[in-house]
Design brief:
The structure holds 2 protein chains of 2 kinds. Chain A is of the alpha+beta class. Among the domains of chain A are: 2-37, no CATH class; 276-502, Dipeptide-binding Protein, Domain 3 (Dipeptide-binding Protein, domain 3). Chain A is built from 16 helices and 22 strands. In chain A, strand 16 and strand 17 form a beta hairpin. Chain A starts with a helix and ends in a 30-residue tail after the last strand. Chain B folds into 2 domains: 1-86 and 288-325, no CATH class; 96-285, MetI-like (MetI-like fold). Chain B contains 15 helices and no strands. Chain B has helices spanning 2-30, 39-45, 53-63, 69-77, 91-126, 131-144, 148-162, 180-217, 221-228, 233-258, 260-263, 265-270, 276-285, 289-317, 319-324. In chain B, helix 1 packs antiparallel against helix 14 (289-317), helix 5 packs parallel to helix 14 (289-317) and helix 8 (180-217) crosses helix 10 (233-258). Chain B is globular and about 85 Å long. The chains are: A alpha+beta, B mainly alpha.
Chain lengths: 538, 325
């Protein structure tokens, strides 16, 4: 009987209907899932908000400003977590005989207004930046640009320039000739057309009062349709709360928050060591002009104690040779200055200092007293209150150097450093993961006269020669050897003392289906921000 | 004869205010220039870009930071307020984009704290020595001592982070695709925490002032007369007594109002709420001279204008002042 019933059911047309219905139900979620795969919006929050309008002439000259512009404007090449990848140029080659780079451009690319992109736009961009400088790109490295065909362009260098791909190919935003050719003052030119690029996102709005930005996907993007329809930047007083309450999907975080956020299902990513806190020294005046004295300072500073006490242990000691240990040109044999109070005393005594009755060193009856300026700069353009100044004061006083600590607002400190109206100042900067060309802007007094991050140190001719020559060396191995030597000399001369690399982290909500990452060598010339446009392109 | 005297007095006041205004214009020009540092240094100091001496000179030249007072005054009179160095946008555009949010936040905070402080003060003074008075005075004294920064952070942590009832940042949901009425609700939702923070900061002062003034007034003979006439208590409280409390409260209101431009800076920072305070703060950070000058000018002229208006308001509230003039 039972057997008969089973057979009946199996043969029943109702069973087939049920199976068909089941299959249909199975298919529906899949097809709707396919439609939903595209994320409607992603919100990125930061605590500053405004970083200028996102075009090459109006964005703030800092990393977050560049990144906001990079969604709209593409470069010839770009970088992901592994290094260079094609962008507007699908391939490139260096012609050493003619000292020129030849780029083969992508075909079928259109600007956001539908106009086709050609080699003429690339040539125009270079000519335009020569007339109206875009400070991120060293235009003096380029001698000439020639359009070889609609999609091929040759850029002749003024001199061998090893950092060309990073500083020009991977940083220079290409602008449309048909829009900019008649613009005389690009900074003040205000028209929606100046936000037309070839990038994956079209710029829609910047609310200056609120510090919010809106971008919409450019579906005709040549590298594929962007995963997210709307990209929004918002300003927040507290990025961690915004991420936790679902008001943001990607934020920079303080390292101590990482564990809690991971417990809540957020993904935390950590950047390589590319930003350092540094002690600037006025090596033009006594006693800082003596190499031995600067070395004594380096021995007096306990890098690990700074990290432990001022940053809860979230950081790592900096290489005294400037180049980050995560950089491929890092020299592991760079001299170091382990904390050694006895050595400090030895050096100071050899310089004629004697221990006075108060416990501090003296020379000719005058106490050894130094002025230390402290401010609160940290990675990614932010500012966090820390106690570096207090701790360093304690360390120096412990070895017999009296310290007059002055806490100041950042711009005031920078202003004094720039004019050499200081003795020592705690400052900081990034760019340490980018091309080794950065050494020039951190050491060479001619290349960085106006920089507040540069040691502007010309006392060691060999160091200067190496810093300048390595940029012109197109042979990678030879260049690497030069950079190695630079680090050794720098660490010995120690014109400014690298202190530590604070941990730099971002957290994001993985449920949005976007895997954010830090770029190898930083974005463009070394921006340490985890907002690479390639994260939104499949 | 008397009219002539009044006219002369008025003319004197007007002349004094004009002189003060000119002085303020000079102060707005000169004061921001005393700030150490400059725009190009401040903007490029934390930058990944290092300027060559030529590039730096070109930028300085472009921004024309060395504008003289004559040029400044001339441009001011031509209503040419200049461009922000940082945004390359007319300063007035930046200011008027930020102003509505300041007006909304601080305007509501001032008016509500004025109203609530006044009514609570009057009512508490009327019910002297009751448990309400003791409790309120004690409570308000404590609140008066808590800075906005503490209240703001506590409210943020409790109501935005832990309970999630209110948003933690901004004036509205950025680029929300919603109807107008939904947007109004959204703005109200975002306004709540910053507004409550300010109310907690402002109400105690108004309350204590109103209560103290009222305590003095209700002892006056005219109140006893009013009571003897058998007038309803509410009428005695508000039409007879509380009117006299308005005078010190108005002074306080006026002076607070004058500091409206930057008054909510701390709250704006905690809640990332837009406003003129934030505009000025950011401008100072990057030494955006035209913006600093404009905000200093407008806020100092506002102080003058408020003091001038208070002169007139006093006459309206207290006829004795007018007669004395």
């Amino acid at each position: 009987m039972n057997h008969m019933r089973k057979e009946y059911i199996f043969r029943s047309k109702w069973l087939w209907i049920l199976i068909a219905l089941g299959n249909f139900l199975l298919i529906i979620p899949w097809s709707s899932h396919a439609q939903e795969k595209r994320v409607h919006e992603i919100i990125i929050a930061d605590s500053k908000g405004d970083w200028g309008y996102p075009n090459p002439f109006r964005h703030y000259p800092r990393g977050p400003g560049y990144v906001r512009m990079s969604w709209v404007f593409d470069t010839l090449v770009w970088k992901d977590q592994d290094g260079f990848i094609p962008a507007l140029a699908r391939k490139w080659a260096y012609d050493s005989q003619n000292q020129a780079f030849v780029f083969d451009l992508q075909e079928g690319v259109t600007w956001h207004d539908g106009t086709p992109f050609t080699a003429e736009d690339v040539a125009f961009t270079i000519q335009y930046y020569m007339k109206h400088p875009y400070q991120w790109v060293p235009m003096d490295a380029i001698a000439d640009v020639n359009v070889i065909g609609s999609y091929r362009v040759k850029i002749t260098l003024a001199r061998p320039f090893a950092a060309f791909l990073t500083y020009v190919g991977g940083t220079m935003p290409i602008i449309p000739k048909h829009i900019w050719e008649n613009v005389e003052d690009p900074k003040k030119y205000d028209d929606p057309k100046v936000y037309i690029g070839t990038g994956p996102y079209r710029f829609m709005d910047f609310d200056k009062a609120k510090g919010n930005y809106l971008y919409e996907a450019f579906d005709q993007y040549y590298q594929g349709v962007p995963k997210v329809e709307r990209l929004i930047y918002v300003k927040t007083g507290n990025p961690m709360i915004s991420l936790n309450t679902g008001k943001a999907d990607l934020v920079n975080i303080e390292p101590e928050m990482a564990e809690g956020l991971e417990r809540k299902g957020m993904k935390v990513i950590k950047d390589a060591r590319g930003w350092n806190k540094k002690l600037m020294i006025n090596h033009r005046i006594e006693p800082f002009c003596h190499k031995e004295f600067r070395q004594a300072l380096a021995y007096a500073i306990d890098q690990q104690e700074l990290i432990d006490k001022a940053h809860l242990g979230f950081g790592s000691p900096a290489s005294h040779g400037l180049v980050s240990p995560d950089h491929e040109y890092y020299n592991p044999n760079t001299p170091t200055y382990p904390h050694d109070p006895e050595k400090v005393r030895e050096i100071l005594q050899s310089m004629g200092y004697v221990s006075g009755p108060s416990g501090y060193f003296e020379k000719n009856g005058k106490p050894l007293q130094v002025e230390l300026l402290a401010s609160n700069i940290t990675a990614a353009g932010s500012s966090v209150p820390d106690r570096d100044g207090e701790i360093m004061k304690k360390q120096l006083q412990a070895v017999g150097i009296q310290v007059d600590l002055i806490n100041m607002e950042q711009a005031t400190t920078d202003g004094r450093v720039k004019k050499w109206e200081f003795q020592m100042a705690i400052s900081g900067h990034g760019g340490l993961l980018g091309d080794a060309m950065v050494l020039g802007s951190l050491i060479d007094p001619d290349a960085s006269a106006g920089s507040v991050n540069s040691a502007r140190y010309g006392a060691n001719q060999r160091l200067l020669d190496l810093v300048r020559a390595q940029v012109r060396e197109m042979d990678e191995e030879k260049r690497k050897a030069m950079v190695y030597e630079c680090q050794e000399i720098y660490a010995d001369e120690i014109p400014a003392i690298p202190l530590y690399y604070p941990d730099s982290m971002s957290a994001y909500n993985p449920q949005k289906g976007v895997n954010w990452f830090y770029t190898k060598g930083g974005l463009a010339i070394g921006v340490p921000i985890a907002q690479n446009k390639m994260a939104l392109i499949d | 004869m008397k009219r002539k005297k009044i006219f002369k007095t008025q003319l004197g006041i007007a002349a004094t205010f004009c002189l003060a205004a000119i002085l303020m214009i000079y102060v707005s020009y000169a004061l921001p220039r005393f700030l150490p540092g400059d725009f190009v240094t401040a903007m490029y100091a934390g930058s990944e870009v290092t300027l060559s001496p030529e590039q730096e000179a070109d930028l300085r030249n472009y921004f024309n930071e060395n504008q003289g007072f004559g040029e400044y005054l001339f441009k001011l009179l031509r209503l040419d307020w200049g461009y922000s160095y940082a945004f390359f946008t007319p300063v007035s555009v930046l200011f008027f984009e930020a102003l509505p949010w300041t007006l909304l936040l601080l305007g509501s905070a001032y008016l509500l704290s004025f109203g609530i402080g006044f009514i609570l003060g009057v009512e508490t003074a009327w019910r002297r020595k009751g448990p309400w008075e003791k409790g309120l005075v004690g409570g308000m004294m404590v609140l008066e001592g808590i800075p906005e920064m503490i209240t703001g952070v506590v409210l943020l942590l409790v109501f935005a982070f832990h309970l999630g009832w209110f948003p933690a940042a901004g004036a509205d949901t950025a680029y929300a695709e919603i109807y107008f009425w939904e947007w109004i609700l959204d703005v109200g939702h975002h306004l709540t925490l910053p507004l409550v923070t300010l109310l907690i900061a402002y109400i105690p002062g108004n309350f204590l002032l109103a209560r103290n003034s009222m305590s003095m007034v209700i002892k006056a003979p005219f109140i006893i007369t009013a009571r003897a006439k058998g007038l309803p208590p509410r009428r005695i409280r508000y039409a007879h007594a509380a009117r006299n409390v308005l005078l010190p409260l108005m002074t306080r209101f006026g002076l607070r109002f004058a500091f409206m431009v930057t008054g909510a800076l701390i709250v704006e920072r905690i809640y990332a709420y837009p406003g003129v305070g934030t505009l000025l703060f950011n401008a100072i950070q990057v030494r955006d001279l035209p913006v600093i000058q404009w905000v200093v000018l407008v806020s100092s002229l506002m102080v003058l204008l408020i003091i001038l208006s208070l002169e007139w308001v006093y006459r309206f509230i207290d006829p004795r002042i007018g007669q004395a003039g």
